[in-house]
Amino acid sequence: MDSNKSSVQQHQQRMKRTKIKKRQKLKQSSANISSICNLTGLSGGGLPETCANEGDLLDELTALQQSSANTDIASVCKSSGLPQTGANEGDLLDELTALGKEASTHSIPRSPPLDQVPNIRVELARHLHTQNLSKFLLGGSSLRMPSFERWLLDSKLEETSRLEAMISKSIHNPTLLHPNDKKKYGRAARSFDSDESERTEKDRKLLRESAFAAGQRDASHADRTNFWLHHVERDPILPYHAQESDPSSVRLAQEIMAAAGNGMGEEESKKARYIVRQLCRKASEACNEICQLQERAGRFQKLAANPSKKRKRNDKRRRIDRVSVEWLNEKQLSLVYTQRKKSSAAKDCQKAKPFVVKINSSSYHKLRSMFDLVNKRQTKVSEADVITHAFHCLVFVLVIRYSTLAGAQQINGDLRGGGNQGAVNSEVFGVLSKHFGELGTECFASPFNSTSPRFFSAFPSPDVDGFFGSYGDFYHPPCEEYFQKSGWFEANPPFCPGYETQLARRICGLLDKLSKAGKEATFVVVVPTVRCGKNLAAPGSNHYNGAHDDSFAATVHGAASGSFNMLIGHECCRSHIVLKAREHGYIEGSQHLRPTQYKESLYSTSVIVMRTKMWECEMQAAEFERDLREAFASKHRLETEKRRIACDE
Question: CA quadruple 475, 479, 483, 489: dihedral positive or negative?
Answer without folding.
Answer: negative
